[in-house]
Amino acid sequence: MKFYVKQKLFSAKNKFTIFNENEEEAYKVEGKMFSFKNYLELRRMDDSVVFSTEKKLLTFLPKYTVYDASGDEVAKIFKKFAFRPRFDVFKGNERYYIEGSVFAHSFGVRNEEKIVAEIQKKVFKLTDSYEIEIHEDHDKELFLFIVIVIDQILHEGKNSSH
After folding, report:
1. Cα 90 versus chain centre, distance
2. pLDDT digits (tens, 9 = 90+) for 12-39
3. Per CATH, which fold does 2-160 belong to?
4. Confidence bin at 125 (pLDDT 50/70/90)
5. What are the extents of the domains in the chain?
6. Rounded to two decimals, what is the model's pTM?
7. Which of 29, 34, 111, 116 falls 20 to 30 Å from 93 in CA-CA distance?
């Protein structure tokens, strides 16, 4: 199943809309203004919270924790030290590996056995836009949210290098 993520162009805080393969709005993501922990929420279109995340402060490389609507920890996302963008995601006993291309335009998400999702950044757009193909239905909302968190991490790296 395919999804499309589009960032809002003129917004004081991070805002994304996620469309399903029929190009219907399925989810939205919003961040809090002036949040040191880069707080984000994934919401369904009825405004119910699916996941939220916060960045752990005072770490060498970015680390984020994902929480469900009840505030229980669901997953942890760790940026790895590498030439190409790489991330580890731990969800309970499951581990996912995310590896991006040199310019961070495409990513593969795999578990120990196979690729479970593929992410393509749309290059010639005014805002960040992604196409996400999820090969299995389970954890689809988590994978969609992870794309947004990775986008945040990549932008942090660009902003801190100036």
Report:
1. 14
2. 457 899 999 999 999 999 886 555 557 8
3. Porin (2.40.160)
4. low
5. 2-160
6. 0.83
7. 29
